[in-house]
Amino acid sequence: MKATPLTRIALAAALLAFCGAASSQLITRREKEPEYREFTGSNGKTIKAVLVDKTDTTLTLELPDGKTTTLPYDKLSEEDQAYVKEWDKEKALFLSKCEALTIRELLELRGYESFKFQLKGNHIFVDGQLNGNDATFMIDTGAGSTVLHVESAKDMGCEVGPMDQVIQGVGGTAPAAITGVGEIKLGQSVIEDQKLLSADLFKDIPGARKDYDAIFGAEFMSQLRAVISYKEGRIFLRPDLVGHEGEVEVPEPPKYRLFKTKDGKTRAATIAKKNATSVELNLVDREGEVKGKVTVPNGNFVDEDQKYITDWSPERELFLRQCRGLTVQDLLELRKYQSFEYKRAGNHIFVDGKLNEKDTRFMIDTGAGSTVLHVDWAKECGCAVGPMDKKVYGIGGEAPAAETRVPSLQMGRARFENRKLLSIDLFKQLGGMRDYGAIFGADFMRETDAVITYREQKIFLQPDA
User: Fold this and answer.
1) Which residue in 343, 262, 344 sits closest to 304, CA to CA?
2) Degrees (nearest 5) of the Cα angle 7, 8, 13?
3) Between residues 163 and 287, which one has the greater pLDDT?
4) Of 368, 355, 458, 375, which Cα lies nearest the Cα of 415?
5) 10, 22, 41, 244: which has the highest count of C-beta atoms within 10 A?
6) What percent of the chain lies above the pLDDT cut of 90?
7) What SS3 string covers 288-331?
8) Sheet containing 68-72: which strands, arranged edge to edge?
């Protein structure tokens, strides 16, 4: 049999059987009061105002009474001049006008397609299609490559070869087959003509049922610029960015939209306001100049336009027209997320942190229901490691584990104290080669409302979530 280290130990980590309750919450919309600042002039006098605009030589301040004043830079103290030079209009507008937008809205406005995922035992599942058949995929950042359940692959018309390949897992090895896959589809994302591996993903897990058809691995998430948001329970994909590097600017929104009603009328217009029963439209000419208004009851529009109206909000409109230059990283950091640049190795992602104050590299693994330590490293870091009388299960069967008390685990400002985790030999099947000290699992990612972005190659955590 030919050994194929497709996903190394990470594939097995994806199948560790830990439990957790699913939850999802959205951000409540709220109005935000302007944050006034005391500006000091070069003459020592102060003024309370909000900075609303600037040029290379002047700044515009809005006073508490709503009036504005424009000043040259040299009329301010050196400290305030430095503040103005660092000030970013798009970020300020976002914080004052658009902060109530959810992560989902922000990403969809940037062109992402989103999918609601299910959490079962902390594992993420998304519905899609395999060769035109309905299929369920487990989303696993720890799996370097996508792997099919062999029976699902056969049932859905994939070309399954002989079981002459080998994949490695936490408990040992398991036979696998090279498999030709015609099409994998998630929403608008279509992956065609792939050679993947199939294995019995449930054989070595006691009491396991086939509740998904494939592990959707990191190679496709990287290509599709995936974003995973635990806070909103969604994964976001951008199939149109395959082959592009870096951030792609959001296209400028059109001056108006052609709204169509069910009676066959078409109106060039923008939305002025809406309520639960109707929408008020600004009727415009070809240049976008307002020429009149009309109020139309909800339900009178064709389905596509009705959905646009339902989704529309003043915050979304402002964001599209005045905050488009912000990157995904900007948007998350403005939401008080702390960002960590991760390192890639064979499609696996790693982030540096600390275990009991010792520098530790963590593998980020959405497929691992709970955070797991490498047993030798846990001991070296002073964790209280119990006897190896516990068991974990995955590809290749079972592996011994030890209940371990962890005084502290830290990643940036996110700190987890006095936790009870499991320790296992993460590298037994790899000849003892040690690449990292622990798997950072879905339990801690849910606790900190983690967001993982493949385009920016970052993980974002909210330490105070």
Assistant:
1) 262
2) 85
3) 163
4) 355
5) 10
6) 62
7) CCEEEEEEEECCCECHHHHHHHHHCCHHHHHHHHHCCCCCHHHH
8) 37-40, 46-54, 58-62, 68-72
Instruction: Output the pTM of the full model.
Output: 0.81
Q: Which two tokens stand for residue 192?
A: 């065609």
Q: Which residues pair with 123 in a beta bridge?
A: 120
Tokens matching residue 238: 């951008």
pLDDT digits (tens, 9 = 90+) for 200-209: 988 877 666 7
Q: Are 439 and 142 in contact (CB under 8 A)?
A: yes
Least Cα distance to 405 among 417, 415, 413 occurs for 417
Model pLDDT for residues 136-145, shown as the tens digit of each residue: 999 998 888 8
Locate 155 and state its tokens.
């049932």
